[in-house]
Amino acid sequence: MNQLDFPILSLMMGLPMLAAIICLFLGAHAARLLALVTTLVLFVLGVVLWVNYDIGGPQWQYVERVEMFGNFAWALGIDGISMMLIMLTVFLMPICIGASWESIKERVGEYMAAFLFMEVLMIGVFAAQDIFLFYILFEAGLIPMYLIIGIWGGTNRIYASYKFFLYTLLGSVVMLIAMLWMVQDAGTSDIPTLLNYDFAPEAQTWLWLAFFASFAVKMPMWPVHTWLPDAHVQAPTAGSVILAGVLLKMGGYGFLRFSLPMFPEASEQFIWLVFGLSMVAVVYTSLVALVQQDMKKLIAYSSVAHMAIVTLGLFAFNRQGIEGAIIVMLSHGLVSGALFLCVGVIYDRLHTREIDRYGGLSINMPKYALLFMLFTMASIGLPGTSGFVGEFLSLVGLYKVNSWVTLVATTGIILGAGYMLYLYRRVAFGELVHDDVKAMPDLSAREMALLAPIAAAVMWMGVYPESFMAPIRGDVGALVARIDRAAPEGDAHLKMGQVKAAPNGLEVEADQGESH
Amino acid sequence: MDYRLSLIFTLPEIILSVSGMILLLVAAWGGLKSARLISILAVVALFGSSAYAFEFLTNPSFEFGGDAFYSLYRMDGFGSFAKLLIYFAAIVSLIIAPRFFKDSGSYRPEYPVLILFATVGMGMMVSAVDMMTLYIGLELNSLSAYVLASIIRNDVRSSEAGLKYFVLGSLASGMLLFGISLVYGFAGSTNFSVIADALTGDLATGPLIGVVLVLAGLAFKISAVPFHMWTPDVYEGAPTPVTAFFASAPKVAAIALTVRVIIDAFGEQTSTWQQIIVFVALASIVLGAVAAIGQQNIKRLLAYSSINNVGFLLIGLAAGTAQGISAMLFYLIIYVVMTLGSFICVMEMRDAEGKPLESLSSLSGLAKTRPALAWAMMFFMFSLAGIPPLFGFWGKFLVFDAAVAAGMLPLAVIGIAASVIGAFYYIKVVKIMFFDEAANEIVHTGHKTENAIIAILATAVSPLGYLTIPLLAPVTATAAQALF
Fold first, then answer.
1. Do B469 and A146 touch (CB under 8 A)?
2. Average pLDDT of the residues of chain A
3. Of A157, A169, A181, which is closest to B423 when you measure between CB atoms?
4. Is A157 part of the contact surface with chain B (CB cutoff 8 Å)?
């Protein structure tokens, strides 16, 4: 079956499902404990997954397949990219449960059940090897997230939950029609087979657009990003963490798994669209973030800007761009999750997210200020943190394709530094003017336990990214080989070292080697 | 013609009609006291008929079916399948009724008897291969339904529902009859296969109008737009168990009947009926979704939801292939389960004195006062909206798959995009139950039987429902194949 001789992926989906059902019938404290234990066990299973993952082995590992639904199969299996995203999920989940430990007091059983169910779906989305199974799990995430925002959210939660639900649903339904067509055309719903199936170029255009509608909303790309700030602001802290940390990555994963390898020609054809929207997103949402008064909204807009870097990297069609985009996804999952936790920490104390109500926190909350500083720097992309590795690689990849787009995208980094440092200055520095802020205690042991692991992961990814890049290298290589035939001609050419007269044809090789 | 065989083929109907007549006599002599006994006996009779229908559907020796009574009636997999669904819905409507009527008046023995007669009519509808049998079955069902709608005779709304249903239903029957007479006039027969042979090539105006009128009459019976106007009023006014029955069994029968008429009698005229069905399907989806948004009464809301779902069902018919019909049949199973489930949840909405509540606002905060009921209702709502992983998604998946396979991409894209409008009011119900402050209106604890049925139906539409696909898919495929 696989290197572990038992269906570990099904177990990783079955276990939280079971726990979720039990949670519904438990009291508050028991439900919290069960959820924490389950998510920790899943984290351990995730580590088992990673340790036993055979780097350089077959592309799809831990494969399971049961033909049980007629039109589709229970087919699971992961490659390196899926594994890293599953790791991100199982890493963030115990932290989410911990973040809700004290702030959620009502209907705890249902809350924990919704989160555990969410975890089932997230693992399933990244592990699904059947296109319809993927769709079902992808769409199913709407229900628990709708409940999380609507039941435990802020004052304007109903509007936000409706907007989240309808926006994402409208984006995805057309994708289902595209999937039905693809499966009928290719005769199989098996994703690994579809990855190597060549659809007719004119069909690709329509299919690509249908998938784009879904993933662009999920990602979210400008101009369909407006659900995100609302959802983030209204969701409870843990909801924001899981939304920014993992759910947004489903959009990027979708581009990576479907749009690019299945429709390479159409992807090339629509590069202008992706680049155009991403450029607007980088500059526009960064500027919008600069003027926000609400901390969560600011981080939400910064997410849109970071996700635009991801799309730019993905559609660079080369190794650096795609690897960089994946690292940005992982890094952003950690960093934005941590930033939302940081907001949650002070929100729990003062019950406001308004930036002006704080100030001078570095005086009375030094530990908090230190960690917040680390995550701010990581969000900016300071070398030594995870943010740098991904953004640098994506931009290098992008530069090979289009230096003007890169120029615009890079301004986003500068603006990013602007709004994040401005946020940090207003929250942490200055005088302690408000009495209630003065009375706020520093991080509790529980809060330290939530933030410290993320800080460690952020530093690890920043200092030794090889641990995270080794598993994805082979899969990115396969993807690049697959889409190479449609790769756009770059505008950056190496002038230096080119031999003018070339009787032996060496310089042609050199040229290809450099520009792709 | 072998009468013995004809009688065997019509056994499900014979059992039901004979027991219906006997029970009517029992009711006449036994009075109100006998109501409970008659219900039980009616359920037994329905189980007996189900056994035969099941035998006809699954026994390989009946695989190709057969005609009875000089091609007036056909026993085949398609009809037997539809009958099983109808009998199931009828049995559930009988089980849930006594408690409801006890709470709001008295339970009359006419109720089970009328259900039995309506069911006989529906059995005839789905087995008819002749316009005459079709009409007789339809009228037997409709007349019983008119009485059922007004069964609480001292209730104004119930009487009004019955009257409205009767007037509009007669109009539709009139249109249907006129259409049938035109088709008969041009084809020279009322038999489906003879009509199919006669109506080939380009249609003259006469038979064309005939076909359109027949379809209009049938569209009324399945409450498809633009002939849906009666549905919200009747569903709102009729007693809830009756509404549950109307929304499930007769709908299955009418849809199966429509399918058989279109495929068997007008099968050659694809271009004629297809554009009508495509229009009706899309109009039902859109209107069913948009009109439901403003509703404050849960039964009216569910009525529009049923119109909306009929639109999706018709997409399978529009495809016109065996795959499309089999998708419809699968959708019908899920539809019956979802509809019955949500109406039984509505029945559970009662205040402390057991009086039924129907406004959406009385559902407020149900998740706090009756969590299990709220969860079940949420399952039905998301399932009706077709959101995965609930089983309602599977029905939509199958019909859209069939539409895409038949090359009807624009229909599929518009239809599925319109389903998002519908999602709005389903999530509104969930919002009212889960996000709003508790209204504490529904304090009546449920009854064991109803709770058990709700639990079973909710489990069926939960993701566990997907496990039934390997069992049901071959059955629907065989049933659909019987038409081609």
1. no
2. 88
3. A169
4. yes
Q: If you measure CA to CA, which chain B residue comes closest to A176?
A: B397
Average pLDDT over residues B234-247: 92
Residues 6+ apart with CB under 8 A from A64: A1, A2, A7, A9, A10, A74, A75, A76, A77
| ipTM field | 0.91
| pTM, rounded to two decimals | 0.92
Residue A187 confidence (pLDDT): 87
Render A148-202 in DSSP notation, one character per residue.
Answer: HHHHHS-TTHHHHHHHHHHHHHHHHHHHHHHHHHHHHHHS--BHHHHHT----HH
Distance from CA of B315 to the nearest CA of A (A): 13
Q: Which residues pair with B350 in a beta bridge?
A: B356
Q: What is the distance in angstroms between the CA of the first residue and the CA of the last residue of chain A?
A: 38
Which pLDDT belongs to residue A2? Answer: 67
Is the pLDDT assigned to residue A34 strictly greater than 80? Answer: yes
Give per-residue pLDDT as tens, B160-219.
Answer: 999 999 999 999 999 999 999 999 999 889 999 999 988 888 888 888 999 999 999 999
Reduced 3-state DSSP string for chain B: CCHHHHHHHCHHHHHHHHHHHHHHHHHHHHHHHHHHHHHHHHHHHHHHHHHHHHHHHHCHHHCCCEEECCCCEEECHHHHHHHHHHHHHHHHHHHHHHHHHHHCCCCCCHHHHHHHHHHHHHHHHHHECEHHHHHHHHHHHHHHHHHHHCCCCCCHHHHHHHHHHHHHHHHHHHHHHHHHHHHHHHHCCCEHHHHHHHCCCCCCHHHHHHHHHHHHHHHHHCCCCCCCCHHHHHHHHCCHHHHHHHHHHHHHHHHHHHHHHHHHHCHHHHHHHHHHHHHHHHHHHHHHHHHHHCCCEHHHHHHHHHHHHHHHHHHHHHHCCHHHHHHHHHHHHHHHHHHHHHHHHHHCCECCCCCECCEHHHHCCHHHHCHHHHHHHHHHHHHHHCCCCCCHHHHHHHHHHHHHHCCCHHHHHHHHHHHHHHHHHHHHHHHHHHCCCCCCCCCCCCCHHHHHHHHHHHHHHCHHHHHHHHHHHHHHHHHHHCCC
Cβ neighbours for A218, distance < 8 A, ≥ 6 positions apart: A168, A171, A172, A247, A248, A250, A251, A254
Q: What is the pLDDT of residue A28?
A: 86
Buried b (16+ CB within 10 A) or exposed e, A112-135: bbbbbbbbbbbbbbbbbbbbbbbb
Mean pLDDT of B425-447: 82
H or E element that contains A85: helix A80-99
Angstrom distance (rounded) from CA B443 to CA A509: 80
Q: How far is A315 from chain B (nearest CA, A)?
A: 27
User: At residue A507, does pLDDT exceed 50?
Assistant: no
- Please give the pLDDT value at position A333: 92
Task: Name the residue among A110, A162, A181 with its Cβ closest to that of B404.
Answer: A181
Report which of residues B276 and A499 the model is more confident about: B276
Query: Residue B301 corresponds to which tokens in the numbers above?
Result: 């809301």
Look at residue A501 in the predicted model and tell me its pLDDT.
54
For A399, the token pair is 């530069």
Cβ contacts of residue A179 below 8 Å, gap of 6+?
A: A131, A132, A135, A189
Residue-level pLDDT at A509: 45
Task: Please give the residue of chain A at the shortest CA–CA distance from B474.
Answer: A70
Instruction: State the best of B420, B433, B436 to mutate against chain A, taking most chain A CBs within 10 Å.
Output: B420
Residues 6+ apart with CB under 8 A from B184: B131, B190
CA-wise closest residue to A239 among A379, A336, A358: A336
DSSP state of A226: T
Cα gap A127→B420, rounded to integer Å:
27
> pLDDT band at residue A492, thresholds of 50, 70 and 90?
low
